[in-house]
Amino acid sequence: MQERAWMASARCRSFPPIFFFPQDGAGVTVAMRACTSCPVKEECLEHALAKGIDHGVWGGASERQRRRIRVARESTRAQVIAL
Ligand code: SF4
C-alpha cells in the first residue's frame, strides 16, 4: 500500500481513467499535457516501468516512449554487466 502512496497526489484523480488510455495520437498528446504539472510524475513513470504497464499514458510518457526508456535502461544494464 505504501508503495502506491504517491497516487493520492496524482493530478489525474479528477479525470476519468479512460482519458489516460487514448485511442489515437491526439488523445495521447492531450493526456501527456495533463501530466506535465502532476506532482508525482516521476513516481508514476517509475511505477509503470517497474510493473511493465504497456497501455496508456503514465508519468507523462506514451506507450512508445516507455518502451524506448525500457530498452535504453536494459541496454545500459547490459553494458554495465559486460564491464
Ligand atoms: S503523471 Fe499523469 S498519469 Fe501519472 S499520476 Fe500524474 S497525471 Fe496521472
In whole angstroms, the N-to-C terminal distance is 37 Å
Class based on secondary structure composition and strand pairing: mainly alpha
Major β-sheet annotation: none
Order of helices and strands: HHH
- How many helices? The count is 3
Rough outline = globular
| Low-pLDDT ranges | none
Mean pLDDT rating: 95
| Share in β-strands | under 5%
**Overall number of structural domains:** 1
Instruction: Identify the bound ligands.
Output: iron/sulfur cluster
Name the helicity range. Answer: 40-55%
- What gyration radius follows from the Cα positions, in whole Å? 14 Å
Count of β-strands? 0
Quickly list its features.
binds iron/sulfur cluster; mainly alpha; globular
Written account of the structure:
This protein has 83 residues and is mainly alpha-helical. The chain has one domain. The chain is built from three helices and no strands. Bound molecules: iron/sulfur cluster.
Give the topology.
Blueprint: H1 25-35, H2 41-51, H3 63-82
The protein binds iron/sulfur cluster.
Question: Quick recap of the structure?
Answer:
The protein is mainly alpha-helical. The chain is 51% helix and 0% strand.
